[in-house]
Amino acid sequence: MHADLSRFTFRPERHYSAVITQQGRVQLDADFNEQAAIQLHQARTIATDLIGPHGGPAGDTGFRITFEAGNRELDDLTIGGGRYYVDGILCDATRPRPGVPAEADGGDGEGAEGVEPREEPPATWTYWDQPDGHRDPERPEDRLPAFPFLAYLKVWERSVTAAEDPSLREVALGSAVADTAARSKVVWQVLPLSAAELELEDGQLPKDTVREAFAKWAAAQTSKARLAARAERPGNADDDPCLVRPDARYRGPENQLYRVEIHEGGAAKDATFKWSRENGSVTFPVDELDGTWVELASLGGDDKLDLDVGDLVEFTDTGRESRGEALPLLRVEELDLPGRRVRLSGEPEPGVGRRPELNPFLRRWDHREGTARGKRGARPKLRNGAIPVEEGRWLPLEDGVEVYFAPDGGYRTGDHWLIPARTATGSVEWPTDPARRPLLRGPAGIRAHYAPLAWVMGESAPSDLRKSFGPLAADVPAADAEALALEARVEAEEKAAAEAAEDQPGQEPGQQQ
Fold it and tell me: Rounded mean pLDDT of 470-478?
């Protein structure tokens, strides 16, 4: 997640059950965040063990899909309210009801004098207005495909800061304090998948056949990218010998949490990456966009968290963050500090940052043109503002920090790795083998979770692929377990005696020979 963290220490393979606070010790953000991660891991593991990969509670199973034919090819899906669990993650499709303003409604729905009657909002979400889907009817790829198709649920988590949700900011702290804590948000999206993508034939198919095809497709979505990181003493380390220890490999003067993130996905020849020394947490809320000029709500707290000419920024908003699509990075060309304005190298993408309710903002990235050297010392050109991925060789970031992309990787937009760099050790924190060789690691995120919802074959009712579970609780018995067991044993003995008597004609039950 893009948050101002020192590092992320949760490792499920270590089987820690709690973080123990000790008296007189420094309190770190990593400790609190690990405690939250431990609790989430335990709760979701229990839910998955009991429920399975996905399912909803009987009587309130959410995400019932109904097809709604529309005009001009804008077909729609109704998403029924209720709860559903995907890999133990709770998803709630219940649409919140709007509040009632004071003195605007007398309770009969007709409204007060001079006030228009309230228009009742829809009771459920739909494919086009789902809260985190941000589907665009003008984009053909967002429209529902031809019959048959699968409606499925995609679930993932992302961080939200005050740049996207201003209500997180405590205004009592004043403008000098930009924000305090961030939030982690569960994002669910109902999306379509054509029969061709599932490699299925058209028509009525058994539910298990569709589920198996979907499970195969979902498994293929796992990222195949692997990366390693290290710190090596750069050749120009002696230029500033007084800044850090002479033997330090990491030459930065401050502790950092480097974030290496895939910008454009695909094969290595098409993929690009970007990096930040602040975990991508340096953001600037946008008040207004006028061509290439952007008016910011606030500037950074100091020169390390501010903008400068030549910086590369990502102009985005809540909608694009939820869609997970790569946007061209733009360069800061000019600063107007008194007016809190910056001029960018190009106009942002159409449809991005034009809607204030989506809270547009700039995110700063710290690489620049020529940051990493290519083959034979040539400086590579950036592609849409990001660095082309080169596999099988160490790529320098800055101050001795280097990264290595394993060959034959497949990359997804949003795949990222976190690399803590520490001045105390003059190195980076990265797992190594006994020979101190850095180990390859898959991305720390984004991890998406999937569940099939419905197989839509036409305007008739879709084939429901959801699963449900009942409560585990039952009525308390009238007697305790020991009394019930004794009663059952007596009944069994009487039944056995009666059956034995029937096998011997002329003998009454219980009569001894």
Answer: 82
What span, in angstroms and rounded, lies between the C-alpha atoms of 117 and 111? 5
Say how many CA atoms lie within 13 Å of 218 toward its Cβ.
Answer: 21
Of the candidates 463, 450, 467, which has an alpha carbon nearest to the alpha carbon of residue 203? 463
DSSP 20-53: ---TTPPP-HHHHHHHHHHHHHHHHHHHHHHH-S
Distance between CA atoms of residues 171 and 188, nearest Å? 30
Average pLDDT of the residues in 398-407: 95
Element (H, E) at 152: strand 149-160
With beta carbons less than 8 A apart as the criterion, state whether 41 and 447 touch.
Answer: no
294: which DSSP letter? Answer: E
Q: If residue 363 lies in a helix (H) or strand (E), which one and from where to where?
A: strand 361-365
Q: pTM for this structure?
A: 0.86
Under DSSP, is residue 434 helix (H, G, I), strand (E, B) or coil? Answer: coil
pLDDT-based confidence at residue 500 (cuts at 50, 70, 90): confident
Q: Is residue 284 a contact partner of residue 361, using CB atoms and an 8 Å limit? A: yes
238 φ, ψ to 5°? -80, 0
**CB 401, CB 428: distance < 8 Å:** yes
The pLDDT value given to residue 429: 96
Q: Which residues contact 449 (CB under 8 A, 6 or more apart)?
A: 86, 87, 89, 154, 155, 156
Tokens representing 48 are: 């998955």
Q: β-strands 330-336, 312-316: how paired?
A: antiparallel
How far apart CA 286 and CA 307 sit, in angstroms, is 13
